[in-house]
Records
---
Amino acid sequence: MLEEKQKRMTKQKRVVYEVLASTKSHPTADWIYQQARREVPDISLGTIYRNLQVLLSEQRIRELNYGKGQSRFDANPLPHYHFVCEHCGQVMDFPIGSPPVAAQLLALAPGQVQSYRLECYGLCRDCLEGVEIAK
Amino acid sequence: MLEEKQKRMTKQKRVVYEVLASTKSHPTADWIYQQARREVPDISLGTIYRNLQVLLSEQRIRELNYGKGQSRFDANPLPHYHFVCEHCGQVMDFPIGSPPVAAQLLALAPGQVQSYRLECYGLCRDCLEGVEIAK
DNA sequence: ATAGGTGCAAATGTTTTGCTGTCAA
DNA sequence: TTGACAGCAAAACATTTGCACCTAT
């Protein structure tokens, strides 16, 4: 059996994880960098990216990518869904405990599904309200 | 009502769309470029990207992004699901006619869902077979 | 003591853009 | 005729990497 290569716990790695785990906002690497500098002023952006890769390989976090610009990261490694507001750009979680996508649907896949990702797009409640008022 | 800015049909735009529509492989911009050069030898990669943006804005195609490397494009603008083989990297469609994700699930979203995207990851049938044989 | 991590800066890879000439309408 | 589009090349942007130094174990 393959041994995982040993990974050290440095203050940089701890801070990257803490920053990510302390927010629900699914931030970008650069946002994490700005926050992490408060704790470790000379941390570098390269270190942020390197530690995000390490945390991904440890399956402690997930990467979310939406085509344009930077990736976003999520400290919740469990399966859950995201809602992206196309007006304000915010990325929100579905309420915890949302039921899984129907197994019958996944069974139609042209292969064996190991994980999946459901991303919804639309208008969040705040933006919807703004649109209603503007009418 | 806002008028859409007029869009011309150039041979470059037609070729970009035809190349994309002629394959089920969800190709990258660069692959489309290589194919398009057969028809229009001095087409440029910039033109490929510009026309893909135009086609996206016309909602005739969709962009698929999987974190690493280049975006992929899909000439099918209708809602459907994708299966990504984590072994060979291939991106496949679910069979047409697959039922939609349950409305009860979408109703839990923290906003009004206008569209959604379901991406499944795992091993495709060919790769699964390879793994079985290797045992 | 030392392997693995860090900061820094340069490199990479993808996508966008400025400019000038061309062509579809 | 003319303004939207093309080709070309440079710029922009996010992310990765090489290297010499540092530090957790």
---
Amino acid sequence: MDISYTSLIDNFNRYFKLTSAEEQEVCNVFYVRHYKRRGFLLQEGDTCKHYTFVVSGCFKMYAVDQNGKEHNIQFAVEDNWIMDFQSFYEETPSKLYIEAMEPSTVLQINHNDLLQLYTAHHKFDRNFRIIIEQKYIQFQNRILETISATAEERYHRFVDAYPNLQQRIPNTQIASYLGITPEFLSKIRKKNLRQ
Amino acid sequence: MDISYTSLIDNFNRYFKLTSAEEQEVCNVFYVRHYKRRGFLLQEGDTCKHYTFVVSGCFKMYAVDQNGKEHNIQFAVEDNWIMDFQSFYEETPSKLYIEAMEPSTVLQINHNDLLQLYTAHHKFDRNFRIIIEQKYIQFQNRILETISATAEERYHRFVDAYPNLQQRIPNTQIASYLGITPEFLSKIRKKNLRQ
DNA sequence: CGCGACGTTGATTTGCCTCAACGATTGTGG
DNA sequence: CCACAATCGTTGAGGCAAATCAACGTCGCG
């Protein structure tokens, strides 16, 4: 079995252990895909047609505003799930981009296969429920930070929460994620070196 | 059957229709509860022990920072679900408050009953998966707004998205939700009257 | 009636942005 | 393999968005 599938099955097993039949089904319906740096997993206007598990590498999800400025909504590194739920479920054109920041390998399942998987193996309803609940908690904490903390506090919490990400991702991208300019992030970092 | 349960069952049926056995089970495990204005459904330090469906009324979920200031994370009116997922699943003390802003009626299920419901009736894994996915989409859009739009734009989008909420909730509370001061919200509103 | 929550206004301050400029690094095509 | 472009991080001057602080009128409610 391709080693990629091992990391996916490990991810599922963290919540409710799969039977060997279910593991087999996972290998059947998920397919491997590779992305080059700057390759697009999703572009504005496309309809998001698959649920994606990142095996290795790193992606950013962002929207582009009317001034052409990018705003990073989330990052996804290995062992993470990423997709545009709104586009996926409503089957409408996405307003978002998902772009590889490193050469990356993913496993994808398409819409119809996922619906059939839910019906054939109820455990996946449960596993995907828990996956999205975990992501929901992260979003809720992030919302609380953005409405209550200064940019400086938010940057420190980001570094504390994702120390490995901070080393892999350019500060420009982190600034976009925090909702501040790269210049201002640079000033925050300088200020903290002196202390 | 208590009319409260009708609105809950309608909510479930919107996604995947319940059988009469499942409807019966819902009536068995969910219990009605009433809250006065300013009554607490959850307080900091409590462990969140139930998943709550709002039948009527309105709640705010908020955190209190080190300066004693409240920050509204979300509102929940009738036909909405509310809970602190982090506290509920990790069974740890919550950092949040959930407080009734109007006299309110809810239906609640406690932790163990929910776990049993998931196991006995797989459809609830699916329904609750979809419920949380919808809430996830809302959070994602909100994050995008907070990192990309000005306070004025965010206020207008809030009013457009929730015109009925804007009439029921004091501006002080909306300001807290938007992450701005009541004074500044007042100035935004004044400016738009003139135009 | 009197108190507390609410909404408003103005003066001042501050956090963060814009714009411009500059080296250092990375990447890429010839 | 080099040359050149693009990306990245940094710095400073100036400006704007939003916070702070203080004051005041209104309203609903106990």
---
Amino acid sequence: MVQKKFITIYETLRKDILEEKLVYGTQIPSENELVEQYQASRETVRKALNLLVRDGMIQKIRGKGSIVIYQGLTEFPFSDLISFSEVQKGLGLEHETEVEVLERITASEVPNVKEALEISSNTWLWHLVRTRKINGQVKIIDEDYLIEALVPNITKRIARQSLYAYIEQDLNLVISYSNKSITFESFGALEYQIFGDYVVPYTATVRGIVHFEDTTKFQYNISRHLATDFKFNDFSRRR
Amino acid sequence: MVQKKFITIYETLRKDILEEKLVYGTQIPSENELVEQYQASRETVRKALNLLVRDGMIQKIRGKGSIVIYQGLTEFPFSDLISFSEVQKGLGLEHETEVEVLERITASEVPNVKEALEISSNTWLWHLVRTRKINGQVKIIDEDYLIEALVPNITKRIARQSLYAYIEQDLNLVISYSNKSITFESFGALEYQIFGDYVVPYTATVRGIVHFEDTTKFQYNISRHLATDFKFNDFSRRR
DNA sequence: TAGTGGTCTAGACCACCCA
DNA sequence: GGGTGGTCTAGACCACTAC
């Protein structure tokens, strides 16, 4: 099989919703219609639809059908802040990444990382600090610790472009999941140095431990955003 | 059927993981073993396991098996702040809710709510302000707007105890999903009044629009946390 | 080679909504 | 009653891991 059937169905419908071929508040074709349309079994169609449910794109209603509930980025008409997810997705905004630090250190030289990645003190790590400019202004300081044995040969060039592209495409490793936390913290020395004397000297700090498919932890990331420019959007379902 | 089979399997395994009968880093029984154990088909077992994957409880590895990746609340050994999800779940912490405001208003009297809930200006709403004390100190100001026609007869007693229990158990409505955002904002008049002259006059503000199963929006919630006491935990998978 | 998880099928029965 | 989504089955073939 060239492409998984349920992924094809999922991606096609997702695209239709994003492009508003299927519009907010209206029904999508029924499961039986999709079975016909894609020559798939109903369980396969349902697998695709469940991905859309997970994404917050559709809502299924028994006896009625499935309705598009995704409204693009206009859900929250409250602020014109730069959204965290927009930044992550690189939607429309002009990025510029600068590598401030790229060095090889051992886990003993920094606090917390040893515990976060469950490694011994003498494990070699890459220590990486990058700044992200958006429309000419530094908005994010990204600090990373990566296990060198798992992610070798990081260069400034790789760090400036895309670390994840290097890991996934060149090293052929599969990044799978992460645990993250968001807190608000006051500026430390690094932040004053990079952000300067900002009116509101606080950051939204996102810490994450990132894992490969085989559950190996390979990265500890600390992402510091100017707090006043930070917005995190979330879709969640009730258990 | 009294109870859905895949839910039974899911809940049993979930409980075993939470109670550490299945411990972090070890394998759970294989799909075929679970098929035997629960006298279910493999697809049913897989449906249960996929819920655990979604929850960040297990990681499936092809050719090998499924491994427990959930570690309780100890994943982030970085701060002893009060966690947002802990607060939400009411884990271990002493709550105290006080109702500051409970009134009937129309949508025209407040900004944003009309757009957020997609209602007309003359729609009647409940306006609710509650404060949440944790260990004796007010940490959260919860402000809600609810459509009266959908959620009638809210009393102070209901507001002090559990609004959601009232909606789900007494009114028999099914709360389904919400869109949320998290931002960092400076104190307004209400915050100064309730939190007082706090050293760090900023809040982590969580705004949410909450929907029923049939996609009806019924609630607009604004939850203001003392920024320095806020922590949001997240598990996410890479697409 | 044996065992694991990943995908897919064709059919069944059910609960729910609506005309 | 006809259409919708929700659950479940028994079997098939595949890709990957471990031995």
---
Amino acid sequence: MDSYSCCLSTSGESKQVAKMAALLKIVSEESRLKLLCILRRGEHCVCEFAEHVDLSQSLISHHLKDLKDVGVITDEKRGLRVYYSLTNKGKYITNLLFQIPNKEEKQ
Amino acid sequence: MDSYSCCLSTSGESKQVAKMAALLKIVSEESRLKLLCILRRGEHCVCEFAEHVDLSQSLISHHLKDLKDVGVITDEKRGLRVYYSLTNKGKYITNLLFQIPNKEEKQ
DNA sequence: CAACTATATGAATCCATATTCATATATTAC
DNA sequence: GTAATATATGAATATGGATTCATATAGTTG
């Protein structure tokens, strides 16, 4: 495995990078990151998000769909409401991401 | 700290989410992720990247600048060449990201 | 000095995706 | 059944960011 194997489209490493990019692209957008941040405290339905996050109901639904598509959240319908929560994958990734320190380092 | 503190623009948590988003936006793009992946094996100059990555010299420079701006890489000029390498922050973050498993989980 | 190599950079263009809007679907209550 | 509520969705638009292009800068060589 040389330094550039992640650039050979045939390499497993290249595919890993592509998959990681696809996941991070969805997860790292600020609005969706906020939704994930809220979900770390437990399940929430769309109307609860809509009350607290400064986004339209429609936009929230779109974002939740994207997050669901990459497998970091699931939903469960109960009555009129749809409750969203983190999957194991979602818990794993948000634990990872939210442990990144936000202070600047020298160097 | 309630469930929605990351949505109050005044909260520290909200700022943390914004900073994290800014960093991840840069780091998670596939081309830049490839550059980081290469840099994990040690320092490289722009012309080395250009030989192996399917991107123009100009584009590589732009990407490296973005990565440098968020503090994950530094550069050092030696002769005509500019050598890039990961900062401590860069090592920390790539170690985190590249440990994410790429298999799908059930649920 | 001129010619050459390696890199950086600003502006223009192109493209992906966030956002909006109108509307559809599903569930509940009456 | 109708009305009301919660959510989803597709298409249109707006916007941000990736890519290209032309060119500038800096260091090297002879």
